[in-house]
């Protein structure tokens, strides 16, 4: 005979979580990995915002007397070939990664929404044209397209953001279009039509809000890949130009020749990239479970 | 079915045609061609010299004519000349293809042979500690940049053998073959095996919930027989469909990994050509990549119908 302790079962299910902190505590227990991801992301945002207060050294100050110094009490992560403090460069590098991540996800998201909504809602030849354009953009790997884009636009922060945002557009547009097509047949859209709402208003007020959940899930999932793409571009020397401290760029300066002589120049920037992407991926997974339970694995 | 194939082939042509236009004009929207770069570097500009070089390279003509010239040549197997080496682009590109193809094939092999079994293991033990660990490992696989993984492998090489493995075009011993092809492809495969694993896992979970799995268990089939014979056979289909996505994934990984390991393959050549603004090489390489991705996707869709008789493409 199993006796059920209703009280503890309810508590476990989060029934008593009525204040913010209790709710937060419940979520932290329910989605441990997601919480870890959120904490990592918060750390990176903190580093990016307060970079100037965290570091003793400027990321750009050249100090050739202390070039290639190994990690020590003064320079926690050592210095690079110009004597610049690696720790300061990594903390400041969070700004660039964050700017590229948020910038290109937002930019790609906005255009993706417009194209997806128009394509799914208007159908007809608009849909046909957008579908072909999406096919074209998706036939090239993200990195290849971003490489050609930065080569065409020239290496600078805004150009890198644009170059990474463009390959995101078809990914977002596909999801929005599929959702719009399904939503268009829903009774509430028909009801809105019957009371004489304009198509534009229906699309923006009724269809768009209902595609938000998958959109947020997709955006978080893409955040990590935009950070990785920026790192790859900068690693190849076609992303963020010198002297700005981009993590990928730091690895390209230090690549093969420093593997032997100055391993700290290889290890720390790589950890920074991996950790930031890992955090967004963990958080994105948990967010998908919460917002889009049908996809839960 | 035939109608569908014809329609798909037609759409493939349109896509490739669109890509050729996008790439060609994208590369030329910025002011400054290779002649400008060369003359800037020289520091001295004689307009007459410059004009004659531009004429000999054909870049003084209108863009539309240049485009038609390129596409016309492409259809006849003439890819134009590299600006840098002045050799035919085909001669530059062809010898590099087998190197990258070998790396990609090895990477796909690693990715499938690591990703699929681990995905099954993770799904069968859903909710256990093992599943948890495997999921975290696969997520970390998606988070590590492959160029960093490559650098770490090089570092391990230095620690163990005291030297960095150097690319050897004709590996003789097993050790040379390993460091030439296996190490770079492992660096690429780690990431794509994580993707394979995640897809295998979610596809397996879907199948394990089906009624016929319960029937198989009820009739007393062994656990291994249920998991591999009944479930995996059906769960593998969605895994095959993402090979197209994986191909795109792999190419991205190969670009950085070939650079790290100094492998003279197609992917690293693309980066070099972009740096040099060697348009004929860049546009042909991008077209090559697009053809590979598009044809892979098409083949996968067709294979899908072969493996799963329930699927009939109709139009």
What this model shows, in words?
The complex is a heterodimer of chains A (297) and B (315). With 297 residues, chain A is mainly α. Chain A is 74% helix and 0% strand. Chain A is built from 13 helices and no strands. In chain A, helix 5 crosses helix 11 (212-235). The mean pLDDT of chain A is 84. Helices cover 77% and strands 0% of the residues of chain B. Chain B is built from 14 helices and no strands. The N and C termini of chain B lie close together (8 Å). The mean pLDDT of chain B is 83.
Q: What characteristics describe this protein?
A:
heterodimer, A: 297 residues, 13 helices, 0% strand, flat, B: 315 residues, mainly alpha
Secondary structure layout plus pairing:
The complex is a heterodimer of chains A (297) and B (315).
Chain A: H1 6-12, H2 20-30, H3 32-49, H4 51-54, H5 86-122, H6 124-138, H7 142-153, H8 157-184, H9 187-194, H10 199-210, H11 212-235, H12 247-261, H13 264-291
Helix pairs in contact in A: 2-3, 3-5, 3-13, 5-6, 5-8, 5-11, 5-13, 6-8, 7-8, 8-11, 9-10, 11-12, 11-13, 12-13
Chain B: H1 2-26, H2 34-42, H3 47-57, H4 63-75, H5 89-93, H6 97-124, H7 129-143, H8 146-161, H9 174-208, H10 211-218, H11 223-241, H12 243-261, H13 266-276, H14 279-307
Helix pairs in contact in B: 1-14, 6-7, 6-9, 6-12, 7-9, 8-9, 8-12, 9-11, 9-12, 10-11, 12-13, 12-14, 13-14
């Amino acid at each position: 005979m199993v006796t059920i302790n209703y009280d503890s079962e309810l508590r476990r299910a989060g029934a008593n979580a009525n204040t913010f902190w209790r709710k937060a505590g419940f979520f932290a227990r329910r989605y441990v990995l997601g919480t870890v991801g959120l904490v990592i992301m918060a750390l990176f945002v903190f580093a990016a915002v307060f970079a100037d207060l965290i570091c003793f050294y400027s990321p750009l100050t050249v100090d050739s007397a202390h070039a290639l110094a190994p990690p020590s009490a003064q320079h926690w992560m050592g210095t690079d070939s110009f004597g610049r403090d690696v720790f300061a460069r990594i903390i400041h590098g969070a700004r660039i990664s964050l700017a590229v991540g948020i910038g290109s996800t937002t930019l790609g998201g906005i255009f993706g929404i417009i194209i997806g909504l128009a394509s799914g809602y208007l159908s007809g030849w608009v849909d046909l044209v957008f579908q072909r354009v999406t096919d074209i953009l998706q036939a090239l790997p993200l990195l290849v397209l971003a490489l050609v884009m930065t080569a065409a636009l020239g290496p600078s922060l805004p150009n890198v953001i644009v170059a990474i945002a463009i390959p995101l557009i078809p990914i977002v547009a596909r999801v929005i279009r599929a959702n719009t097509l399904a939503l268009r047949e829903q009774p509430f859209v028909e009801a809105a039509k019957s009371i004489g709402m304009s198509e534009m208003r229906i699309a923006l007020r009724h269809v768009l809000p209902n595609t938000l959940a998958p959109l947020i899930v997709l955006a978080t999932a893409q955040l990590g890949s935009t950070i990785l793409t920026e790192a790859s571009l900068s690693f190849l020397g076609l992303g963020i130009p010198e002297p700005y401290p981009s993590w990928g760029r730091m690895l390209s300066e230090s690549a093969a020749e420093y593997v032997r002589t100055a391993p700290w120049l290889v290890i720390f920037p790589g950890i920074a990239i991996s950790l930031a992407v890992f955090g967004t991926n963990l958080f994105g997974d948990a967010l998908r479970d919460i917002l889009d339970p049908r996809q839960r694995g | 079915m035939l109608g569908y194939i014809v329609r798909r082939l037609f759409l493939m042509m349109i896509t490739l045609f669109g890509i050729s236009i996008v790439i060609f004009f994208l590369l030329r929207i910025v002011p400054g061609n290779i002649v400008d770069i060369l003359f800037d570097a020289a520091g001295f500009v004689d307009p007459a010299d410059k004009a004659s070089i531009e004429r000999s390279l054909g870049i003084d003509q209108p863009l539309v004519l240049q485009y038609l010239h390129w596409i016309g040549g492409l259809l006849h197997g003439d890819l134009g000349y590299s600006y840098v080496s002045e050799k035919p682009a085909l001669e530059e590109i062809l010898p590099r293809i087998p190197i990258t193809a070998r790396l990609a094939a090895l990477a796909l092999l690693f990715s499938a042979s690591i990703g699929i079994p681990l995905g099954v293991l993770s799904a069968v033990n859903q909710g256990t500690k093992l599943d948890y660990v495997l999921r975290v490992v696969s997520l970390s696989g998606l988070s590590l940049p492959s160029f960093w993984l490559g650098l770490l492998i090089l570092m391990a090489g230095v620690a163990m053998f005291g030297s960095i493995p150097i690319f050897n075009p004709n590996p003789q011993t097993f050790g040379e073959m390993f460091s030439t092809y296996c190490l770079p492809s492992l660096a690429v495969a780690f990431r794509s095996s994580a993707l394979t694993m995640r897809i295998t896992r979610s596809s397996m979970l879907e199948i394990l919930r089906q009624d016929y799995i319960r029937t198989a268990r009820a009739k007393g089939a062994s656990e291994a027989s249920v998991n591999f014979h009944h479930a995996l056979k059906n769960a593998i289909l969605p895994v095959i469909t993402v090979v197209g996505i994986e191909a795109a994934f792999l190419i991205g990984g190969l670009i950085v990994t070939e650079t790290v390991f100094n492998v003279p393959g197609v992917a690293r050549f693309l980066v070099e050509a972009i740096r040099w603004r060697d348009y004929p090489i860049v546009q042909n390489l991008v077209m090559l990549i697009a053809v590979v991705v598009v044809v892979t996707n098409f083949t996968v869709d067709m294979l899908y119908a072969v493996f799963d008789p329930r699927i009939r493409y109709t139009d």
